[in-house]
């Protein structure tokens, strides 16, 4: 399950990506029809679940084109945005979010386009105007209902993160390390260090 929250008032967008080799073991089958997943369980019949998008057999490029570009637009419209993946171990979260050599996932594609658009905006500034941007990165994992700061070397700090809400800034993770970056390569390097 891939979720994103972006533009004010839009709410959370929930997408499901089915693996090509989803098990069809006879006990149950999963089929996608439009934005609905139909689960056929011989013991109880069919159940339908509807989402904003269902990706079945889609490439990382296609997932990014549908989901990532919308998040990027929201960022440049001035909204905080978040994309996260949820699912069982081995279900394909890392492949969708990070990808692999020659088939980058949502995060590297988003970072590349983010800095390309920043560079483009700098080039189009006219009349002596000054364009300034700052990109900060937080890197965390939520596992077994615990938030881990993946930039922190301090084990106690790393595993004791708390979610808070500020009246003006909104929801945040207390004490999380933020790092300023100036390129997609900076983000890739930091993610490698955080892993």
UniProtKB/TrEMBL annotation:
Looking at the record, the residues that make up the Kinesin motor domain are 11-195
Q: Which InterPro entries does the annotation name?
A: Kinesin_motor_dom, Kinesin_motor_dom_sf, P-loop_NTPase
Q: What keywords is this UniProt entry annotated with?
A: ATP-binding, Motor protein, Nucleotide-binding
What GO terms in the biological process aspect are recorded for it?
A: microtubule-based movement
Q: Per UniProt, where does ATP bind?
A: 87-94
**SUPFAM superfamilies listed in its UniProt record:** P-loop containing nucleoside triphosphate hydrolases
- Give this protein's Gene Ontology molecular function annotations: ATP binding; microtubule binding; microtubule motor activity
Give the residue range of the signal peptide: none
Question: Does Repeat count among this protein's keywords?
Answer: no
PROSITE patterns in alphabetical order: KINESIN_MOTOR_2
Indicate whether Nucleotide-binding appears among the record's keywords. yes
Family, per entry: Belongs to the TRAFAC class myosin-kinesin ATPase superfamily. Kinesin family.
Full protein name: Kinesin motor domain-containing protein
């Amino acid at each position: 399950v891939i979720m994103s929250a972006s533009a004010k008032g839009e709410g959370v967008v929930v997408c499901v990506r089915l693996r090509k080799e989803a098990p069809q073991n006879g006990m149950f089958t999963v089929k996608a029809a439009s934005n609905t997943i139909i689960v056929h369980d011989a013991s109880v019949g069919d159940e339908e679940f509807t989402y904003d998008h269902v990706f079945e057999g889609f490439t990382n490029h296609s997932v990014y084109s549908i989901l990532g570009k919308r998040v990027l637009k929201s960022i440049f419209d001035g909204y905080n945005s978040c994309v996260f993946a949820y699912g069982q171990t081995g279900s394909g979260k890392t492949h969708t979010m990070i990808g692999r050599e020659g088939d980058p996932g949502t995060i590297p594609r988003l970072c590349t386009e983010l800095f390309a658009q920043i560079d483009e905006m700098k080039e189009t500034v006219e009349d002596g105007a000054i364009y300034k941007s700052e990109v900060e990165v937080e890197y965390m994992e939520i596992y077994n209902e615990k938030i881990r700061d993946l930039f922190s070397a301090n084990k106690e700090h790393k595993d004791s993160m708390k979610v808070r809400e500020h009246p003006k800034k909104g929801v945040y993770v207390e004490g999380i390390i933020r790092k300023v970056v100036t390129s997609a390569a900076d983000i890739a390097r930091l993610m490698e260090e955080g892993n």
